[in-house]
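User: Fold this, then the next.

Assistant: Folding the first:
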Amino acid sequence: MALIEREIAVLVGTTVVALSPKARSVARKGAVYGLAGALKVGDVVSSTARGAARGAREGVQGQSGGAGAESPRASKPRASKPRASKPRASKPAARRRAPKAAAAS
């Protein structure tokens, strides 16, 4: 016979978490990190599936031979885009240097 029943222990634990600020903080952080981990796993799984599908597609195209054996991405080199330069901000009027006065003769 157990010293305390399982249902009572769960109820006490839930009450402690609900009433204790420190326990709520720990539970909140755990939920945030758990959700972030689940999202990361989802990203890894989907990118792995996309890579596998791409590899299978390229493998099938490579085995068929003839025209279209290469992927259109592989045949065209990617052109680099020119970077737009940022316009330089002019100095505020208060910080501009005043023109030097001509020497009075």
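Now the next one, as you asked:
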Amino acid sequence: MKQLLFSLALLGSVASAQEYLEIAAPTSQDDELLAVHQALTALEAHDARKADLVKLRYFAGLSFDEAAEILSIAVPTAKRDWTYARAWLFQKIKLMREEAS
């Protein structure tokens, strides 16, 4: 929330940032983003390197080569970690949805 306010404040005043937040209505996509965030936070507690890889690949859009170099791991390791992290996140989000129902 602080980061969002800060980013919006850079574009204008803090007052306009707060107005923007009041006007913005939650959508179904917001629920999906929140679930991804919560699952990624749980993955970070479980295995920080795999969570960092997801952030680099998913949010920063880096290739396996680029992400592996940043994390100081081999490309095949990055690919294995990616496969594991995707499956782990899928299961975590599925479990969270079942608990919410």
